[in-house]
Structures are given as structure tokens and as C-alpha cells.
Design brief:
The structure holds two protein chains of two kinds. By secondary structure, chain A is an alpha/beta fold. Chain A has helices at 48-62, 91-102, 148-158, 181-193, 198-220, 236-246, 259-273; strands at 15-21, 25-32, 35-43, 70-76, 87-88, 114-118, 123-128, 134-139, 226-229, 250-251. Chain A has a five-stranded mixed beta sheet. In chain A, strands 8-7-6-9-10 form a five-stranded mixed beta sheet, sandwiched between helices. In chain A, helix 2 packs across helix 7 (259-273), helix 3 (148-158) packs parallel to helix 4 (181-193) and helix 5 (198-220) crosses helix 6. Chain A is globular and about 70 Å long. The relative contact order of chain A is 0.18. Chain B has a domain at 10-160: 3-Layer(aba) Sandwich (Rossmann fold). Chain B contains 16 helices and eight strands. Chain B has helices at 3-14, 18-27, 42-47, 63-66, 76-86, 91-95, 106-115, 132-153, 159-181, 192-203, 209-227, 252-259, 287-296, 307-319, 334-347, 363-376; strands at 31-35, 50-54, 98-102, 121-124, 238-244, 263-269, 324-330, 351-356. In chain B, strand 1 (31-35), helix 3 (42-47) and strand 2 form a beta-alpha-beta unit. Classes of the chains: A alpha/beta, B alpha/beta. The structure holds iron/sulfur cluster (2 copies). One iron/sulfur cluster binds at residues 75, 77-78, 104-105, 107-108, 245-246, 302, 330, 333, 335-336 of chain B. Residues 75, 77-78, 104-105, 107-108, 245-246, 302, 330, 333, 335-336 of chain B line the site of one iron/sulfur cluster (SF4).
Chain lengths: 282, 378
């Protein structure tokens, strides 16, 4: 979809950047006329602003773009106010936009109605209408129950890595009833002491995350197709357990980590096209 | 066009002076009666010559101290109220002669039992439903309060004084209602943060006619300047009504999250805002009956059923052309939290429930939630 001036001559390409400052990693995406050109991911570290600015600068540098040539930058994520950007949009809207891009069917049809996003710090369930607009969303409360942080703590306890969670053999999960990191920890210690199989426990922990996610998805209004984004979606077992609970397919993408940044870059495209004189959308 | 900011500044500066004014009043021989709840019939306290003072209850500071006596999973409003009293950090509590409580929610009524050890606390038995029997019961309770005040303060409450105070309190309600009604205009002439500040100023004005005059002047100027084209609020801001639990200092984080992320609060259907003031006391009825009818009519979630709140909210959504409703719930407030389901059913516009406490740890999450809520409206 080549942008053209009214006269018919090819317009200058519209370059935008979307930058997603998460609690663990900064993700930046470079886009040209709605097409995904380049990506960059770096640890957030102690200075989210600097990490975000650096990621954007790197994208410009290696694509030989000068800042003047850049149409617009939109920031999202918890650190969105820390970076230099022309607009700031919450991760809810960006994830919705990014998921629509990742899971588009054909050219423009929206291939997703419900999105589950489990990141390091929080989890979200987002409901979209047929046109892909956000109509409802839920976020977990302050505690870490059901988030990447929860799984990370549990992996540490079991002496495995988060990645091990995705490569478990096909056995029945052993139920873990506590959702709270602290209580789950003592429960797991007790179960291990009683000789419960470690792998069955790992699966049980994943299933407790799946059950938490199921609750959120049903409350937000579950409609198919369902997509799962965020770092935790890399766990194949979790996807499987979730599908079993929901009784439907759950779409995942190897690029899910970039969903927020992609959405931000796409929104930047949209906003820039709407005209640079328009008031800043927040 | 600058006088609006001057007036707002004057009000903002007057708020911290509240304790000094109470101290001076006490030194001049005035009596102070502490209160917590919108069901407290101010008119009776004023007719007894005393100042009804709302006690501190909206900061996280004294909560740790309160938790030495109270369970942790209790509403922060109750814990803070008790904590302020326990640590003697509420100047109004310090100076008051008597505290008036009501049997509203369970947590509050049990807390008053402990509070009574720190300061004489008179608890009014509030019916939990609205009926003719309940009105009669509440009338008796208000008369009982009057007798107790007469005894404690060594005064006589005359019918004339009651009628005078009913008229004055009505005047206060009318003034506030007129001020609130400004935000029916689109775009709103004033931000919700400023409205909330004016509420605070009003609360700490202790019936001072000059303070009320200042609020009238503010209303007038806002109207004039607006008609002359002044716009203090972006026309793009999404119009939000806040409903739910009582508001105050520590939950201003929610208002910031709304107004810094593309929204404007056009009405507060809470006890600090429209809820207690939108109906007047009927001045043609015998005073105690009139007060009983007025106060029992407050649509608080402690009442069952409480359809009146849903009617009020639905009406406000229309009158203020609201595009969204933020249902603010204090953690562990069962009554408002359970009513949430009905609120979502009734409002007819996008609605989001935010459960929070007085700690500031969730400000980032609130910004995301409120921002996304506003973005959702397109
Ligand atoms: S919400 Fe109900 S209990 Fe709380 S102050 Fe208002 S009237 Fe009283
Ligand atoms: S907010 Fe709820 S729990 Fe707290 S005092 Fe008011 S009614 Fe009771």
C-alpha cells in the first residue's frame, strides 16, 4: 500500500518507531508505510528512559535514517513517560493494535477477538470488537499471581529455568491451589517433601496460571479467535493447558514479545497520517 | 480572566488553615463535634451551637498504627479514621468534645466501639432501609442525638434554631449544586481536580458565610469567563463520572490518573460530592421529621435496597453527558464492591471498577488502566 500524494507522485515514505518500555526489556520497532522493517530488544536496566532512547537511536543508525526523516515516535509500556516520544499510548491499546497485526488474516481482517497478555509484571485480558477496537479489558491487581514473575519464582524454587516449563513431558499436572507467590512457595515445598513428582508440580503451577488466565478471559467476555501475547506465551505447555481449559484454539506468535512496540509503531503511522498538526493523542 | 486562578489559589491556601481556625474557635469557647459520615445531621449540631467537623480519614499515614488494633483487611477509610484518633494526629479529633457515629457499614460500627475509649462517641442507630417505619425510627434517633448534645454541651436546642440551620444548610447545598452543575457544559469549565479541591475547601469552611460567598463568586466567574470563550479543559477530554466509596487525599491518585490521561471528571457521585447534597431538607415539615426524611434519603450502599443510587447515577450520566464511569472502590468495602455489578448493568456507558487502597504503590498501574479506559472510547 504505497502512499501517494494527491497529484499521484509517490509520497515520501512514512517512517515511525514504536517503543515499548517494559519492566524487564525495552522493545523498539521501526516501520515504513505500515511495513515492519527492523526491531531491537534490550534490557531495561536501571534507567528506562535512557534504554528506550538508545534503542530508538540504534534503529535509526543502522537503517541510515536521520531523526528529521522520522515521522513520529510513540511510546508505550510502564516507562512510556521516561523516553523521548511524540505520543504516549497505554499498553492496552498498543497490544490490541499489535496483536491485530501479528494475527491478521488475509490482508486487513482482524484475526483476533480476545487477547491474553502475560508479561513479567502483570497480566491483561483484552476484548476487541469485530473491527479490532478495544471494548473491554482487565488487569491483574497489584500482586504477582499468574504473571511471569510468579513462574520465574516457582522455576527458581524447583531448580529449573522458565524455559524448562515449556518442554515438559506429557504427564498429568499435580494441582497447586495457591495463587499467591508466597503461599504457593510453601505449598510447593510441602508437596516436594511429600514426594510429589517435580515435573507434575511444574505442570500444576502452569495450570494454576492457566486457570487464573481463564478466569480473566471469561470475565472480559471470551470470543474466538483468542490470541496469547507477552513473554510467557512462549511456554508451549501453558498454551496447551489454556486451550484445554478454554476448549478452543489459542493463537501464539514467535514475535509476541514485540506486540506492544508494533502496536505503538502502527499507532504512530495512523497518527502521523492524520496530520502532524493534530493535537497529540495520549 | 485571571481571577479564577486567584480564587482557586485562595481556596487551596485556606485548606491547611482549617486546624488553626478550629483551635481558635475552641479557644473562643466554641464546642466542636467530630463526624465521619454523610448521615450526620449537621443541622442539629449547629443548632446546639457547636461546629460539626469532619474528622481526618483519608491518608495512609496512621494506618500502620491502626492495624495494631484492627484487622489488616479492613477498608482504609476505617483504618485511617481510627489511626488518626489513636495517634492523636487529627487536629479536629483532638479538639472535639464528642464524636457522632452511625451504624452504617459493619466495619465502621465496630470501630466506633474502640473509638469510644479515646473520645466519647455517640452512635446513632441508622435503619438500613427506607420506609415510613424507618423514617420514624430515624426521627427518634435524631431527637435522641439532640438530647445528648444538649446534655453534653449544656445548651437547649430550640425549634427556631433548628429551622434556621436547616435553611442555612439548604443554602449550602444549593450553592454546591449550582457549582457542580457547571460541569454539565461541554467542554467542562473546570477540571475534576479543581472541583475536588473546592469540595475540600467547602468541607473545611465550617459553615462560614464568607466561604460560601467565595464559592458563589467562583461559580459566577467560571460561567462568565466560559461564556466569554475561556476554555480551561481540552474539548477532546473524555467526560467521566466518578462513583463509589468516599474520596479524599490518598485516592486523588485516581483522579490524577484520569485527568492526566485524556479524561476530565465532570461529576463525583460520592459522599464528598453530589450524593449528600443533591436533595434538600423540606423546610415546610416539622424539623425533626424533615431531617429524618432528608438524611435517610442519602443513597449510600449501606442501604438495602439501594436503587436510588443507581437512579441518581443514571440521571447524572445523562445530565452531565458522561462518556464513561469510574467506579472507585476502597479495598474491603463490601457494600460498594457488591453494588458494582448493578452499577455496570445500569450506567449505559463504558464503566470500569478500580479497587484501591491508600498506598501509592499502584499509581503506575492506575495510569495505564485509566489511560486505556479513555483510549477505549476512541
Ligand atoms: S458512603 Fe455511606 S457510610 Fe460512607 S460516608 Fe457516605 S453515607 Fe456514610
Ligand atoms: S468505604 Fe465502605 S467499608 Fe469503608 S467506611 Fe465507607 S461503607 Fe464502610
Amino acid at each position: 500500500m504505497e502512499a501517494r500524494d494527491r497529484g499521484g507522485a509517490p509520497a515520501r515514505p512514512l517512517w515511525t518507531i514504536g517503543v515499548d518500555i517494559g519492566s524487564v526489556a525495552v522493545k523498539a520497532v521501526l516501520m515504513r508505510d505500515g511495513e515492519w522493517i527492523d526491531r531491537r530488544v534490550a534490557p531495561t536496566g536501571w534507567n528506562p528512559g535512557e534504554a528506550g532512547d538508545e534503542a530508538c537511536a540504534e534503529l535509526l543508525r543502522r537503517n541510515a535514517l536521520d531523526p528529521e526523516g522520522l515521522g513520529r515516535t510513540v511510546a508505550t509500556g510502564y516507562g512510556r513517560n521516561a523516553v523521548k516520544a511524540d505520543g504516549r499510548v497505554t499498553e492496552i491499546s498498543c497490544h490490541a493494535m499489535g496483536a491485530r497485526y501479528l494475527f491478521r488474516d488475509g490482508d486487513e481482517r482482524c484475526g483476533v477477538r480476545t487477547i491474553l497478555d502475560i508479561g513479567g509484571q502483570d497480566s491483561k485480558a483484552i476484548a476487541l470488537d469485530r473491527d479490532g477496537n478495544v471494548v473491554n479489558f482487565l488487569m491483574n491487581d497489584k500482586c504477582a499471581a499468574g504473571t511471569g514473575r510468579f513462574l520465574q519464582n516457582m522455576a527458581m524454587m524447583l531448580g529449573c529455568t522458565l524455559e524448562d516449563f515449556s518442554a515438559l513431558p506429557d504427564i498429568e499436572p499435580h494441582a497447586v491451589s495457591s495463587m499467591c507467590t508466597v503461599f504457593a512457595e510453601s505449598e510447593v515445598v510441602g508437596l516436594l517433601a511429600r514426594g510429589v513428582d517435580k515435573r507434575a508440580l511444574s505442570l500444576g503451577l502452569l495450570d494454576s496460571v492457566a486457570s487464573r488466565a481463564e478466569g480473566m478471559l471469561r470475565r472480559v467476555g471470551l470470543h474466538e479467535p483468542v490470541a496469547f501475547t507477552g513473554g510467557v506465551s512462549r511456554s508451549r505447555n501453558l498454551v496447551g493447558l489454556l486451550e484445554r481449559r478454554l476448549g478452543c484454539a489459542v493463537r501464539v506468535s514467535p514475535d509476541s514479545q514485540f506486540a506492544g512496540a508494533l502496536g505503538a509503531a502502527l499507532l504512530a503511522q495512523k497518527q502521523a497520517r492524520r496530520g502532524r498538526s493534530a493535537p497529540e493523542a495520549r | 480572566m485571571h481571577d479564577i486562578d486567584t480564587i482557586l489559589e485562595t481556596m487551596r491556601e485556606a485548606i491547611p488553615a482549617g486546624p488553626v481556625r478550629i483551635k481558635e474557635a475552641v479557644e473562643a469557647g466554641r464546642k466542636v463535634v467530630g463526624c465521619y459520615c454523610a448521615y450526620t445531621p449537621y443541622e442539629v449540631i449547629r443548632a446546639a451551637g457547636a461546629i460539626p467537623a469532619v474528622l481526618c480519614a483519608t491518608s495512609e499515614k496512621p494506618i500502620a498504627a491502626a492495624e495494631e488494633h484492627l484487622p489488616r483487611n479492613l477498608c482504609p477509610l476505617i483504618k485511617a479514621s481510627y489511626g488518626f484518633a489513636l495517634t492523636d494526629t487529627c487536629p479536629y479529633f483532638h479538639f472535639c468534645d464528642l464524636v457522632v457515629g452511625e451504624t452504617t457499614c459493619d466495619g465502621k460500627k465496630k470501630m466506633y466501639e474502640l473509638l469510644n475509649r479515646l473520645k466519647p462517641t455517640y452512635v446513632m442507630q441508622l435503619p438500613q432501609t427506607v420506609s415510613e417505619d424507618a423514617v420514624e425510627q430515624w426521627r427518634v434517633e435524631i431527637e435522641r442525638l439532640a438530647r445528648r448534645l444538649e446534655e453534653a454541651l449544656g445548651v437547649t436546642i430550640t425549634e427556631e434554631a433548628l429551622r434556621r440551620e436547616i435553611a442555612w444548610r439548604n443554602e449550602e447545598r444549593r450553592t454546591m449544586t449550582e457549582f457542580y452543575a457547571l460541569s454539565r457544559r461541554n467542554p467542562a469549565p473546570i477540571s475534576g481536580r479543581d472541583v475536588h479541591m473546592v469540595n475540600e475547601f467547602f468541607r473545611l469552611s465550617f459553615g462560614d458565610p464568607e466561604a460560601l460567598e467565595l464559592i458563589r463568586t467562583l461559580t459566577l466567574r467560571l460561567r462568565e469567563n466560559y461564556d466569554a470563550g475561556e476554555r480551561r479543559v481540552s474539548p477532546d477530554a473524555r467526560r467521566i463520572i466518578v462513583t463509589g466509596c468516599p474520596t479524599g487525599k490518598s485516592v486523588e491518585k485516581v483522579f490524577d490518573a484520569i485527568e492526566e490521561n485524556g479524561g476530565v471528571i465532570v461529576a463525583f457521585e460520592n459522599c464528598g460530592g453530589i450524593k449528600p447534597s443533591y436533595e434538600l431538607t423540606d423546610e415546610s415539615l416539622p424539623p425533626y421529621e424533615a431531617l429524618a426524611r432528608k438524611y435517610l434519603g442519602i443513597p449510600c450502599s449501606c442501604m438495602t435496597p439501594n436503587d436510588k443510587r443507581l437512579d441518581l447515577l443514571e440521571g447524572l450520566v445523562g445530565d452531565y453527558a458522561a462518556e464513561g464511569v469510574v467506579d472507585l472502590i476502597l479495598q474491603a468495602c463490601h457494600t460498594y464492591n457488591v453494588e458494582t455489578f448493578q452499577v455496570h448493568e445500569r450506567v449505559g456507558v463504558p464503566c470500569i471498577t478500580v479497587e484501591t487502597d491508600y498506598y501509592q504503590g499502584d499509581v503506575e498501574q492506575l495510569a495505564t488502566r485509566m489511560g486505556a479506559f479513555v483510549e477505549m472510547m476512541g
